[in-house]
Amino acid sequence: MITRQELKKLQSLTQIPALSILLPTHRTSPDNKQDPILVKNLVDEAKRRLSAEFSKREIEPLFERLDSLVAEIDYPYTLDGLALYIGPDIAKLYNLPFSVQARVVIDKTFATRDLVYGLHREQPYWLLLLSQGSTRLISGTGETLEEIRDQNFPLEMTGPGATAPLPFDADTSYLDDRIRRFFQQVDNALGEYIDIDDSSPLIVGGVVRQISFFQEVSQYTSAIVGTLTGNFDKTSLPELIPQVLPIMHSVRQTQKTEALQALDAAVSAQKVISTLGEVWRLAQEGRGKLLLVEKNYHVPAVLSENGDLVLVENVGGTEVIDDAVDEIIEAVLAKGGRVALVEEDSLNDYQKIALILRY
């Protein structure tokens, strides 16, 4: 899975050419038998288009990276989508817990719009399982969990009280201080995945004493939305899902309630726009503070010569924006705003979409 931090890094890259291949996949048989065929067809299309636009010397290394990346796809264990990003200096493969439209994009930047959209339709979160033996970090999106296994996690405490005996004259405060310092190390390692201003919720698990020590030293306490008590050293990901989902359900409900309350307050202050064309324009200008959108609200549109948004009935065609709502979501996020997806019919008075303005 891709995290928001990885997505930001991907969006910041400029590669010529930047090849993006996206496609829906299937979790179960027999539907997943068609996935390798679709991958092959998209790869063939990508190679054909690259060969027409670039020299053989330029694209041969790219083709090698692409073929190596395709060989890494583990089809029996795919989720709902795949994203492949290949450039002169990068080759990344992501399993996605949401579906994306099959397409090949060749540009100077990578096609990340579907990922931005998907990550906000499915609330991503982090699960940190504290342990002196092996602290684990798990990335979650919906009901999909993926454990981080790299140079940072799992992270083990070493030295006295862990891999070595305590000094003979050590008291409980000595060990407590050692544990706090270890959890400071854990907290610093978290910085590779979570920004201070990251809106992704954090769930912390462990015995009560460990959770308390971590909260004393962590810089991410404001992100913590819930805790799980117990020893999770050997708990499998499927066993964790039913413990995590109720917390995330509560988080989503709270976020929706707070967003609707913020909308009511903004109406009183006359800082709300709900006409799609105006929402589009002001989102592009960076004036959007909080965008509220009903789930499953999609609408195709085109841009007029003046840059105004004009709705159309059907998708298709080079000039048609298949989903203007998707583009608005990305624009608001790119300008530092927030997005809240609410239940259908929650915004009947606002034509299914409303933008709270900064000014």
Explain how this protein is built:
By secondary structure, the chain is α+β, with helices and mostly antiparallel strands. It folds into three domains: 118 residues, Translation, Eukaryotic Peptide Chain Release Factor Subunit 1, Chain A (2-Layer Sandwich), CATH 3.30.960; 127 residues, eRF1 domain 2 (Nucleotidyltransferase, domain 5, 2-Layer Sandwich), CATH 3.30.420.60; 86 residues, 2-Layer Sandwich (60s Ribosomal Protein L30, Chain: A), CATH 3.30.1330.30. The strands form four sheets. A five-stranded mixed beta sheet has the order 7-6-5-8-9. Helix 5 crosses helix 6 and helix 8 runs parallel beside helix 9. The mean pLDDT is 89. Pfam families: baeRF_family3. This is Methyl-accepting chemotaxis protein. It comes from Microcystis wesenbergii TW10.
Summarize the structure.
This protein has helices at 4-12, 35-53, 56-71, 113-121, 172-190, 208-217, 237-268, 276-284, 324-334, and strands at residues 18-24, 81-87, 90-96, 103-107, 124-129, 136-141, 144-147, 202-206, 224-229, 272-273, 288-294, 301-303, 309-311, 338-342, 353-357. With 359 residues, it is an alpha+beta fold. The chain has 3 domains: 2-119, Translation, Eukaryotic Peptide Chain Release Factor Subunit 1, Chain A, CATH 3.30.960; 122-248, 2-Layer Sandwich (Nucleotidyltransferase, domain 5); 270-355, 60s Ribosomal Protein L30, Chain: A.
